Amino acid sequence: MHGGINHTIGVLFVCLGNICRSPMAEGAFRAASQARGLACHVDSAGTASYHIGHRPDPRAVEVASLKGIDISGQSARQIERNDFYRFSHIIALDRANLEGVRAKAPRDGTARLAMLMDAVEGRRGEPVADPYYGDTAAFEAAWSTISLGAEAWAELLLLEAKTMRA
Q1: Contacts for 162-166 with beta carbons within 8 Å, 24 or more apart?
Q2: Model confidence at 2, in pLDDT bands (50, 70, 90)?
Q3: Annotated catalytic, 130?
């Protein structure tokens, strides 16, 4: 973490396998936070171990790339105990994965748990549909929802960071 407003913000995005939605969320949020000058650590993980070490789905990489965001270098990993202390926020992409995160959370974990769309007015608790079994249009729809949530979280965390400094 370097430069910017706050060095204590860390955001981990979580979906099931960490090859579609959470890598896209990581990329979208990184771009949104950088555009706002919000210094933070950003990563993504899965609740399941299916794809550990794999690169994001090529369709996710393509859709992000069309928006000027490169997620091709990311590598899937599973959420681990240390994440609940290392990140200030762990943001799930749907209810099932939020429950999966909660089930893994240590009692004394310090990360705040939420869903991606919780930061979007009128869309609290709304899931991001998993595009894995869909076509390119499903990935484009997921990106649209994810980028909206990522922008909203970047704005919310920027406000929190400014409040913490005041």
Answers
A1: 162/5, 164/6, 164/8, 165/5, 165/6
A2: very low
A3: yes
Helix H segments across the chain? 21-35, 58-66, 83-86, 95-104, 136-165
According to CATH, what is the number of the domain 10-165? 3.40.50.2300
Residue with the two structure tokens 């706050």? 6
Q: How far is CA 129 from the centre of its chain?
A: 14
Spot the catalytic one: 43, 83, 118, 130: 130
Residue 6 is predicted with a pLDDT of 34
Choose, from 20, 21, 43, 83, the residue flagged as catalytic.
21
20 tagged catalytic: no
What would the pLDDT profile of 26-61 be if each residue is shown by its tens digit? Answer: 999 999 999 999 999 999 999 999 999 999 999 999
Structural domain boundaries of the chain?
A: 10-165
Q: Which of 63, 49, 50 is nearest to 21 (CA)?
A: 63
β 41-46/10-15 pair status: parallel
**Maximum Cα interatomic distance, the chain, rounded to a whole number of Å:** 47
